[in-house]
Amino acid sequence: MEPNQLMEAAQRFIRTCYSELNKTAAETEQRLQEVRYQIESQGYYEHTEEELRHGTKMAWRNSNRCIGRFFWESLIVMDERHVQTEEEMAQALLRHIEFATNGGKVRPTITVFAPAIPGRPQMRIWNHQLIRYAGYETEYGILGDPASLELTKLCLSLGWQGAGTHYDILPLVVQIGDRQPQFFEIPPELVIEVPITHPEIAGFADLGLQWYGVPIVADMRLEIGGLDYVAAPFNGWYMGTEIGARNLADEQRYNMLPKVAEVMGLDTSREATLWRDKALVELNVAVLHSFKEKGVSIVDHHTASQQFKRFEEREAKNGREITGDWTWLIPPISPAATHIFHSTYDNKMESPNFHYQAKPDLPKK
Q1: pTM
Q2: Known catalytic residues?
Q3: Which pLDDT score, from 0 to 100, does residue 187 have?
Q4: Which one, of 267, 270, 263, 298, lies nearest residue 284 by Cα?
Q5: Beta bridge partners of 301
Q6: What is the distance between the alpha carbons of residues 94 and 98, in angstroms, rounded to a whole number?
Q7: Rounded distance, CA 129 to CA 131, Å?
Q8: Residue 313 neighbours by CB under 8 Å, 6+ apart
Q9: How far apart are CA 101 and CA 108, in angstroms?
Q10: Is the dihedral of CA 95, 97, 102, 108 positive or negative?
Q11: What local confidence, expressed as pLDDT, does residue 141 receive?
C-alpha cells in the first residue's frame, strides 16, 4: 500500500476508533499527527495497544459471515507483536489454546503477531484452525479429515508422525519469512475433546465420534487501518451445526449421515423417506447434548439467530449499518425457522475486518 493510501486508511480508522472510545478532538488530531509522521519517516505506523484492542473488536463486529457478533465487545486480545522466533510463536499459540479453552468455559480470544511490513519477514501460520484433525490417504480411502490432507502431507514431510487414527490432532505449523516451516506438537492436556453420544439413542456411542471443543481460525488476514496482520488466530465457541451439520455430516468431510441412519434404523432405500434430514437432526441433538455433558461452551442455531437479532437491534441503536453475507448467516439446518432467512443484508466489506489470504509459500530449494 502506498504511503498516501495507508495514511487515508489510518485516518479513517483512527477517527472512528477514537470516536467510539470517546476520545476528544484534540486527542484524535494529536494521534493523527503522530501517525502521519511515522508513515512519512518510515513508510508505516504502529498501533497502540488500545487501538489494537478496539480494532480487533471492530473487525469481529464487521465480519459479514459471523452469526456470533453479538459478543464482539467481549473479545480478549493477546498482543504478541514482539515475538521474533518460531518457538516464541508456538508458545504464544499454546497460551492462546489454554486461555481460550478455559476448562470448557470458552473465552473469545485473538492472538495478534507483528503486521506485514515491507522489508520485514512475515509471520505465518499454516494451520486452518489451531486444533484440527489430520487426514491420511490410504489404499482403503481417506482416514481422518479429508479437509486436512494437504497440511497433513506437509507435517509428515517435516518429520511429524501421527498415530493413524480418525482423530489425530495436527501439530502447529509456523513459518517466519522464507525459512523452512516448523512444527510443534500440541500437548494433549491443552485440548478438550468431546465424545459424541445421544441422550436417547444408545447406538450413537458405538460410532466412536468425537470433536474438539474450541474452533480457533488461524489462516485469515486481519486488516486494521491499512495494516495487515497476516498471523492473527481468533476464536469464539462452536455453533452446534458447524460440527453436526458440516464437519461430521458433509460428504466431503466425515460423511457420517449413512452410519447415523443405520444406527437409527432408518429406511435409506429412497430419498423421499427424508432419512438424511432425520439423521442430520439427531446428529445435531447428539453434538449439543455431548458438549453440554462435557461442560464445553456451545450454542444451538436458534439461540445464535436470536442473539444475532439482538446484535442487529443494538447496532441500529448505535447508528451503525448492518452488513452480512446471507448465505453464511443462515444456519444449515431449518434456516426458514430463523428471522435471518427472511431478512436481507448488505454484503459490503467494512474496515477493520478479517479477509481470506493465500497460503504461505514453501522456501525454494
Answers
A1: 0.97
A2: 66, 69, 237, 242
A3: 98
A4: 298
A5: none
A6: 6
A7: 5
A8: none
A9: 9
A10: positive
A11: 94
